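In this section we walk through a basic example: taking a raw amino acid sequence and producing a predicted 3D structure, encoded as discrete structure tokens. The instruction is simple. Fold the sequence below.
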Amino acid sequence: MLLPTITVTVIGLLFAAIAAAVHRRAAAWVVLLGVVGAWVGYLVGAGAGRVLDAAADSDRMLDVFGHLGAIVVAAWVVDRYAAIGVGARAPR
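The resulting token sequence is shown next.
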């Protein structure tokens, strides 16, 4: 479990660094968005991968779908909410 801990956190930090440079927001806000988004995406993707692993009797889909979910959700969360900033209203 050590490797996903490192890689998913790095994915979140990478998207946070990109968003901090693009949106010029407080680093703490985008780091929180990036890391939390990556972990939520990993958990959702890993759940789907676990189902596929059980169906296909393999052991690789959990990792693949987990990291793919981390990338997709971290990018989406940071892109959607990084421009809000702390205390601003959410987009409609």
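Looking at the output, two observations stand out. The two ends are 38 Å apart (CA to CA). DSSP finds three helices and no strands in the chain. In the next section we compare this with other chains.
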